[in-house]
Fold this sequence. Notes:
This protein has a 5-stranded antiparallel sheet with strand order 6-5-4-1-7. It is elongated and about 55 Å long. The two termini are 28 Å apart. By secondary structure, it is mainly beta. Helices cover 9% and strands 42% of the residues. The N terminus is likely disordered.
Amino acid sequence: xxxxxLTALTIPGPAAAARDAxxxxxxxxxxxxxxxxxxxxxxRAGPGDxxxxxxxxxxxxxxxxxxxxxxxxxxICDPEGGTAWVHRRVIDGKQTVMTLGETPVALRRRPRxxxxxxxxxxxxxxxxxxxxxxxxxxxxxxxVRGWTPESTLWGVAEPLQCR
Length: 163
């Protein structure tokens, strides 16, 4: 599943990706998108259990962007732009996305604006990311699959500017 997560990133080129990956403890490039594995995850001020808890994430599958890492800890950016450190064991290799905006997002049968709508996804809903191609992403959510423009999603595009 990590390979899927890497295909959705915009990386400045193969040489840069290889260099960035070689410089990280995990061997994967930073930044990259993954998700939270549990429905209760402590967000800490620094990389270690001795750092204070800033807040607790309570959304399993929440898409997060890994923006830095140590051997055991990952600094993440969440969809609200908040940053914190979490232990690597709470990060899932599955990539999810969150729908943006305040109106439902249409899922289409094919990756085209004129394709038949198969379902609507509520604002800020979390869905599994199957793949992205030419500005469109295929999502899976509650047994339904469909395509939506990449611009309607958080968790696949250029790195977010975190606080």
